[in-house]
Amino acid sequence: MSEKTRPTVVKALPFWLQTSLIGFVLIxxxxxxxxxxxxxxxxxxxxxxxxxxxxxxxxxAGYHRYFAHRSYKTSRWFxxxxxxxxxxxxxxxxxxxxxxxxxxxxxxxxPRDIHSPKQRGFWYSHVGWITAPDHxxxxxxxxxxFAKYPELRWIDRFHWVPFAVxxxxxxxxxxxxxxxxxxxxSTVLGWHGTFFINSLAHVWGSRxxxxxxxxxxxxxxxxxxxxEGWHNNHHHYMNSxxxxxxxxxxxxxxxxxxALALLGVVRDLRRPPAHVLRDKLVGxxxxxxxxxxxxxxxxxxxxxxxxxxxxxxVESAELRLTEARTAVGQxVESAEQRLTEARTAVGQxASxxxxxxxSAVENVTLAAETRLTEARDAVESAVESAVExxxxxxxxxx
Length: 398
Prior knowledge:
Blueprint: E1 9-10, H1 21-38, H2 42-68, E2 73-74, H3 76-87, H4 94-106, H5 117-120, H6 122-131, E3 138-139, H7 144-147, H8 150-157, H9 160-198, H10 219-224, H11 231-236, H12 252-262, E4 266-267, H13 274-278, H14 283-291, H15 294-397
Antiparallel strand pairs: 1-3, 2-4
Helix pairs in contact: 1-9, 2-3, 2-4, 2-9, 3-8, 14-15
């Protein structure tokens, strides 16, 4: 949205009067120190626990699931009740809170996310963002569907009024002890219960769904925030009135909304469709979910196991084939080496045989020539002797 079409940002109060860093620190210090001054009693402890639960419900069922995500419908008068109870938590007004929360979902864990531990660190995502002057005032363009109601714009501007009324009631019930425990300690506990969802629920817990952010499911946070700890579920399907998608995921805020629906106070509670519960499952969470999802999930589990077994078998067969190919290659190489050695040996034997045969022929030829020469010499000697004998006898005859 361009700056020309962007509605004017509505300022609530001067920064020093809001939930600024100074006020935030002072309330923490007072809530830590003053209980030791005023002591504690059953009445003040009941105020602390009761107001914690009531105002946490105002944040979870009101600010979050109704104003930010419109996960159910209600009347205009009860809509204002939700805004009043949520504002008594001292987390600014419903339009401010829900508008920025919609931004968080739109840009979750990106540089434009207002409270991402991945982008800005744990402590900024936990408390820094809500005290920063960058987020002072309410941008009505972020939440036009509720900004049209004048009573909501009023309570968003004067969001401190419900807390002031609550503080006065605490004083009326149990004096200063009631103020310290009911308005002080209870508020600080509620703050951090809520803030843990922005910070801790993005770094600690398990992931059932493959979302584009770092959201996680955390059963401990789900207990102390009345169901908000199923944060990975929520980021997977944010418009659901229940964040505990399965029966074993405790979601007190949703249980109370179901009760109010039976009484006709709220209606049209949205729940995730069946296919959403199965989409984008993460590894082990897919198997865990399959165990609780009936026959179809069991079949899916068996299919996954079969695919895994098939993959292992293929991998084993490929390994054995590789080993066989290696063995055959080595055998062929060994046979070729032996054949080469045999050829070399045969060549050497043939060469030696040729050499021996040549030597034998040469010896025989030499012996034959010697004997032939001797025979010729003997014949010639005999002839000469005969001639001499003839010559010797010839004159005697005359």
